[in-house]
Structures are given as C-alpha cells and as structure tokens.
Amino acid sequence: MEICLGEPEAPMPPRGTENELLEGYRAGDLDAFERLYEMHAPRMKSIAWNLLGNAGDAEDAVQEAFLKIYRGAKTFRAGAAFSTWTYRILVNTCYDALRRRKSRPVASSLDADLAAGRGTPAAPPGADHPLRLALEKAVARLHPRHRAVFLLFAVEGLTHGEIGRILGIPEGTSKTFLFEAKKKLQRWLKPQVSGERVAAS
Amino acid sequence: MSAACRRLDAALASSDADAIAPERPHAGSCARCRERLRAFDEISAAAPGLKKSWESPDHWAKIRESLAREAFASAAASDRTDPTAPTWPAWLPLAAIAMLFLVSFVGLQVFRPSLGDRQIFGVRTLTKDPLLTDVALMDVERSEADYIRSIENLSKLAQPKLRAADTPLLVSYREKLQLLDGAISELNGQIEQNHYNTHLRRQLLGVYAEKQQTLRDVMKGATS
After folding, report:
1. I want to staple B222 with a disulfide (CB 3.0 to 4.6 A). Which of A43, A191, B63, B161 is the partner?
2. Contacts of A151 in chain B (CB under 8 A)
3. Domain membership flag for residue A105
4. pLDDT tens string A141-180
C-alpha cells in the first residue's frame, strides 16, 4: 500500500485568484465574497465537522468564521495567504465552540443532526474503509491540538508549513503533534488493525 | 532493535513518503516493523474517509443575512456612540413616525405598476454596499407591511358604518370593498406560491391603494 499521510488531495486555491476576489470584495462586490465562500466553505465545513462532531455545529462555526473574515478582510494584509488566515479563524472558532460546549451537555453528533433534520454527511472517497468508523472515534479522543494537526495533514492534505501558519505553531511542533497523534491512534486502533488482517487472511 | 528499525521509526515519524519508501524492504524481514508499517498504512488509507461533504443550500443565505444584520447594527451603533452627535430632541418620536409614513409612501411608489422595473432597479443601485442595499430593501418590505396594516386598521374603523349602511352609496361602497377583499385574498394566495413575483406584489399594493381610497370616501361620508 503506497498511500501516505500528507499527500495533498485538494490543494489550496491559487493565491492570485483569492487576492483578486479579495480586492473585489474590498471594492464593495459581495459576489466576490460569496465566491470566496464557495471556494473555501466545503473544506471548512469538513474541518469543523471533524473538530466539533456534527453538521449543525460545523455550519454554525463556518458561519461565525465567515462573519469574522468579513470584518477583518478589509484590513487583511495583501500578500499573506488568505486561505491560511481563513482556516486559522475557523480553527480558533471551533476551539471557542468546544470551550463553550464544556459548560453544557451535548447530544451525540447523530442525534444532533437528526434533530436538525439533517442526514449524515455524504460518503467521501475512502469512506467505506472498514477502519473509518473506529478511526473517527479515535480521532475524537485526541487532544484538540493533536486532532487539528492530524485532520489538517492526513485528512485535508495540508503541509506542515501551512498547518504551522494556521495553528500559529512552528513547523516542527506540527510534526511532533502529528507523531503524537499517530502514535496514540495506532495504539488505540491496534485491535482493529489486527482484526482486519485476520479477516483479510 | 536494529539501525534499520530505528530508520523506519524515524521515517514513519516524519510521515514523509520519500523517507518511508527506502525503508519498506526492511519491514519484510522484521515482524515488529512490519506491524508498525501496516498500522501506519491502514490509518493512512482510512484517514481520507474522514473528509465530510454535505449540501447546505441555505448556508450562504444565512451568512449573508447575518452580514446584513451586522452592517445595519454597526451603522446604528456608530450613530449612537458618536460623541459629537447632539442629544435626542423631544420631537424625535414624532419625526420618526412621520418618516415611517414617508417610507411607506416611497414603498408604495416603488411597487406601483406604472413605474415599472426601471425604478425598482434604480433603488437597488442607490448604495454601493450590496448589504446596505439589502437592508434598504428589507426596510421597504417592512414599510409595505406597515402600510397594509394601517389600511386594515382603517378598515376596522369603517366597519360599523358599513355594517349599518343605510344609503345606496354606502351599500355600493360595501360591495366594492368586498370585491377588493376578495381580490386581496386571491393575490395573497398566489404570492404565497411565489414570493418573488414583483408583478403580483405590485398588483396587491394597487388593490390596497384602491381599498384605502374607498375607505377614505366611506369615512368622509361618515363624518359629513
């Protein structure tokens, strides 16, 4: 098996396009801002879902993040990566939501989505992998920082450099967090991995 | 643990495919490393499956609405917190009511059939900020609702006179108002099915204008 963590599947959008749209938005073109939403929202929703555990909270977090982006976009320094800044805002918004959540009981992700009339998210490529459910549960047990690094690297395909800028940590720390996360996941998933091997044989 | 085992551990820790590839042959001859590599590969294969994707067609609309609300609130807040602004005079509530009537009138003019779409789009381009345009449009819709409510109030005031209609003129006014009410309810039914049909909305406001005039005539007859 040659698949390796960190292989970018959906690279970040070209910076030129982003900056053009940003300029358009600054000139009062809300359609340009909507285009920026269309470019980033799918990935942002996915990240937020994996950090928060259900579609409703994920959509709320993305909405809140876009409000913050809208407020800050006019003063955003041109030349920096807009997508990195965007994901940084999103991740911090998710952390805030997790902190708020500690003070109130939370329904399970499935309950919350069903209550809101939403189905479960569509199956992505690789979603039928037998280890996926176990991995999802194990990832949810990780420390939020480790979880964020794992998701951004292994699931979303970002590089350690990008992750470092998003989370405000050095690139080396991102690598260390990923290593810690994978070690824990391997330990927690050992029975499942062995089980798969037995089943396959 | 051999040097090859340590090299494989280091490669796995880096998650770098180029670093792992040369160490793979060693895993063939070492049970411990084979196990570690297998766990790594399994997680690598399953990880993309965690990516979520779902449709949320009204998500952008919600964001846009929040942005419009925020733009409106911040504009109002900046007015309130301006230290150089004068204190509110006592006549302000009256001026606000007068303004409401004025906005209602403007709303009526905008949606009158004779003016056509040209003027509606003219209003849309009054502001550069599309969010503020949205806010202005929401204001017009709100004014439209206030206007309709004021006609209904007028209608309630005229009811005793109409119920006790004792002249042929009042009877014909009553019948005309019944016809107008029928038309209003029919148009409301059609608008329910298509909220964005401005032609129907204009027609509705036209009927309401006719009703308002008729009620005025009734009330004038009542006081004269």
Report:
1. B161
2. 50
3. yes
4. 999 899 999 999 999 989 999 999 999 999 989 988 998 9
Q: Name beta bridge partners: A122.
A: B53
> Is residue B125 less than 8 Å (CB to CB) from chain A?
no
Could you tell me if A157 and A104 lie in one domain?
A: no
Residue whose structure tokens are 């994920």: A58
Distance from CA of B16 to the nearest CA of A (A): 7
pLDDT tens-digit readout, B5-24: 888 888 888 777 788 888 88
ipTM over 0.85: no
Query: Residues A113, A134: one domain?
Result: no
Contact A183, B36 (CB under 8 A): no
**Residue A195, Cβ neighbours under 10 Å: how many?**
14
In a domain, B63, yes or no: no
| Residue B134: exposure state from Cβ atoms within 10 A (0-12, 13-18, ≥19) | buried
Mutation site for A-interface testing, chosen from B42, B62, B124 by largest number of A Cβ within 10 Å: B42
